[in-house]
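Q: How do we represent a protein-ligand complex in a form that can be generated token by token?
A: Start from the inputs.
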Amino acid sequence: MKTLLITGAAGDVGTHLRRELAGQYALRLSDIKPIKKLAAGEKSMPGDVARLTDMLRVTKGVDAIMHLGGFAVEGPWSEILRANIVGCYNLFEAAHRNGVKRVLFATSNHAMGFYRRDQKIDHRMYPKPDSRYGLSKVFGEQLGSLYSDKYGMEVFCIRIGNVNPAPVDKRRLSLWLSPRDLAQLVKIGVDHPDIRFEIVYGVSGNKRSWYDNSNAERLGYKPQDDSESYAAEVLAKEKQPADAQSELYQGGAFVAAEIGGDPNRPRPKLKRRKS
Ligand code: 15L
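Then emit the structure tokens for the protein with D-galactaro-1,5-lactone bound:
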């Protein structure tokens, strides 16, 4: 049985994943504090992502890593830098030094949050982060690309929408990821024989999706869930529309926070050069 290290294992996403993957891998669980309640097949190995020595210790001897660790929302630069930039570097570097072949990176829809909701985006479009947090996720994806090209590491980036047992609001109807669909993507990332560097969207098969997830489908992803079955209930509960910027862009409130310009302003017209 393969040993899978999950960093950030004490968080919400990690907790769903542990339950869904039980019995399928030996799970090494790492978070900044020890995880006390362990199920069969789980081991706790605490570590701080911001310390390379910790990451060297926790990544030793595993077959694959699901890197969920770090700061999971927008935050002050000092925290994003420590947990998501330095932390992500430490994770990849430690994995490389320990010869871990496969790394799955939990990136986020916020790496692409400045795309409008009327745009369908795929894995080939350039990033448009909506926050320092989203930017740190772009950094992690590109770090994965570098380690894949330079060292032959196999890297699978999942741009996670929102993991929850059910979608919680109108925006999340477009980016909901059920726990079992998350587990299916993680299993593809761990076990698919032909991964070099891939980006997929971590979303269920939602009718209202903003994503063309053909890259995940090419690798065998067949989502079992669709937020549409919750849509009527969710929309009935939505009291009033969010502000205009949040409504226009995929990143929602992450876009509107601290905003100081109009991201939708027309592009400047290029002057024709006289030959
Ligand atoms: C994320 O990337 C966050 O980790 C999560 O807490 C949610 O905010 C999610 O995005 C979302 O966009 O709903």
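The two ends are 67 Å apart (CA to CA). The chain has a mean pLDDT of 96.
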